[in-house]
Structures are given as structure tokens and as C-alpha cells.
Amino acid sequence: MERETRRFRRAKPRKKALKFTITIGAILFLLTSGFGAYAFMNAKNAYDHSQVDLNREGGKSDFREDELTFNDPFSILLLGIENYSSDNKSGLADTQIVITVNPATSEIHMVTVPRDTRVNIENAGEYSGIHKLNAAYSYGAITGYGAIKLQVETVEKFLNIPIDNFIAVNFDGFRDIVDALGGITVDIKEGFWEENFYDGSKIEFEKGTAHLNGEESLAFVRMRKLAINAMYSREERQRQFLAATIDQAMSAGTIFKIGQITDILGDNVETDLTAKQIYALQKQLSKADSLAINTIKIDGTDQKIDRISYYIPTEESLKKVSMELRTKLKLDNAGSFVTNADFAK
Questions:
Q1: How confident is the model at residue 31 (pLDDT cuts 50, 70, 90)?
Q2: How many other CB atoms sit within 10 Å of the CB of residue 157?
Q3: How many CA atoms lie less than 13 Å away from 11 in the CB half-sphere?
Q4: Per residue in 72-115, pLDDT tens?
Q5: Strands 290-296, 107-112: parallel, antiparallel or unpaired by DSSP?
Q6: 98 near 77, Cβ under 8 Å?
Q7: Cα–Cα distance between 289 and 286 in angstroms, integer?
Q8: Distance (Å, whole) CA 192 – CA 206
Q9: 50-55 average pLDDT score
Q10: Which among 98, 94, 102, 195 is positioned nearest to 147, based on CA atoms?
Q11: Residue 119 · residue 131 · CB < 8 Å
């Protein structure tokens, strides 16, 4: 299990404010970029339009016994949805990142959940059984159970933690928000190429510092089929992009782009977070001088089983990640480790 920590210090603004952004390294990245009450009011209509109810009993995860209070650590599942191949009817959860947020300490922990992880998907009717983890979204849509609902529950069972909230964004939303921010600067560790999702052209990435636009950013975080992925993995690029995006979104110029960003959110994002929750979180986190971003990796290997390529996590690594996330969420670790992962032994 690998861990990396980055701390982002705030510039001192002329007015007390928070430019806090929760991002999806690979597929969405901006939950909100706010500037006090102005950002809250400007974003409210977009968030109200994007809000989705998971219809949970008691309004909480089955993995929680008690309701959350405002100061409790909580988790968010960030989903990047590819729905073009199905004409927006179902699609797949192309990217999944779980983050835990501690409002009291301003600490964020992030783990990328490999999309091809071999798991047992439940509540999918005739499709229930062993599949890639990202297929839960599609089966939830097909069966009427709920695409996001089934994806959230499947990730909960994989990591053995509650997922308290979610944010889902499609590829257009990712591209457009990157462009609205003026692009993202990243340090490319190894050169590679990837096909442009929109027009099929070849996008070349050379080793070194590069400033990427929306379409280039999408290619950067999606590539997974070339040999270079073994040494410069998709998950590493997603974590790297997350850090770069937070750095960019916390810059002084972001305030002037809030209107454009919130217009994008309303059309391309779904979430169960309310604007009031987001604003309250912003107020709490604005008291901190810096944000600590900690990334955690689930170790494993790519394996082909029955002619299908899967990611098989090691049981030891997955258990350690689960226990660390549960500790960050202040949950009991006394019980036995339970997961829907299939270790294919």
C-alpha cells in the first residue's frame, strides 16, 4: 500500500474566503470552487438541478449505525461516467475515486478504485455475480435498481466502508471544467499517446511539464491499454492530476470563473450533496491554513481469467486500505474484514 501526502497552503485573500475544490483526478474534478455567499448563491441552481436521491433508509448508508453530524469525517464517491456508447441510457463508471474528508482537521484521503477490479455484484437481478466493478453502474440502470445506487453499494462492499455521498460527472463536464479553469499544468513522468475521445485523433504526451486543455486532460487520465501503463499507471496519473487540479482551482483567478463553472455543473453533474451542505463545509474548511491531500493505492495485478482482463487486488493491501479508511472515518476496526472482491485464488 503506497501513500503520498501533499499540503496546499492558501494565499491570503483580501477578504476571508475559501477557494476549496474537491476533484476527481481522472474524470471529474470540481465539486465546487466557492467565494463565500457569492459562490453559494451562484451555484445553488446548478446543484439543485443536479441533485439525485439514492432513497436510502434513514437517509444514510447501511454501513453506518448513526447519522452523521456536521463535524464527523465523511466519504464521497467520485464517479466519471462514460455514457456515449449507450446513447446516455446506461454507460459505465469509467473512473471511481473514494475520498474521506475530515472537516475538523482539513484532511482529505483519496483512493482510486481500479475500474476492472473483479468483484461479486449483488442486487443486479439476472446479472448478479462476478463482474468488473465498474459494470455495476450499467446493470443498475438496466434492471431499474438505479445506476448510481448500485455502483455506490458495490464500492461500499468492496472497501467495507460507508459511502456517505457521491458526485458523478460525464466526459463533457470534465472537459468543459478543465477548459473553464484555463487548463491544468502537470509534470508528465513518461511519454505516451492516447486517442482523442471526441475526434479519434492521436494526442502525444511528451515527458516533462505540460499545460493540458480539456480534451488532452481527458486523454491523460484515461489511457490504460498501452504498455507504458505498467510503469506509469492510470491510477498514478489520476492522483497526479487531482493534485494539479486542486492547485489550479485554489488560485486567485478561479473566483472570476464561477459562473461558467456552475453552468457546466448543472448539465453534466449528478450528486446527492445539497448546496447548503457544500456551503457549510466551505465555511468550516476556510478556518484551515492548508489542506492535506493524502493518496492511498490498492496494490494488485492485472490478470486474464476466462479471456477477460481483471484487476486482482492483494487481500493484504485491500484489508490495509479498508482499515485505514475506516480509521479516518472513526469507525470500529474490531470486526473481521469483509469484501465482495474476488481474489481468484
A1: very low
A2: 21
A3: 12
A4: 999 999 888 887 554 555 678 888 989 898 888 878 888 989 99
A5: parallel
A6: yes
A7: 8
A8: 7
A9: 77
A10: 94
A11: yes
Q: What is the CATH number of domain 3-174+250-328?
A: 3.30.420.590
Using N-to-C axis directions, what is the helix angle for 36-50 and 258-268, rounded to 10°?
A: 20
CA distance 30 to 14: 24
pLDDT value for 80:
85
Residue 198 Ramachandran class (φ > 0 left, ψ -120 to 50 alpha, else beta): alpha
Pick from 248, 4, 264: which is nearest to 111 by CA?
4
> What is the reported pTM?
0.80
Query: Rounded distance, CA 162 to CA 165, Å?
Result: 9
In this structure, what are the phi and psi dihedrals at residue 307, rounded to the nearest 5 degrees? 70, 10
Look at residue 70 in the predicted model and tell me its pLDDT: 74
φ and ψ of 243, to 5 deg: -60, -40
In this predicted model, what pLDDT tens digit does every residue of 318-330 receive, in sequence order? 999 999 999 999 9
Decide if 146 contacts 48 (C-beta within 8 A): no
Rounded Cα–Cα distance for residues 343 and 345 (Å): 6
Amino acid at 275: A
The grid coordinates listed for 56 are 436510502
Question: Which residues have C-beta within 8 Å of that of residue 67, sequence separation ≥ 6?
Answer: 58, 59, 60
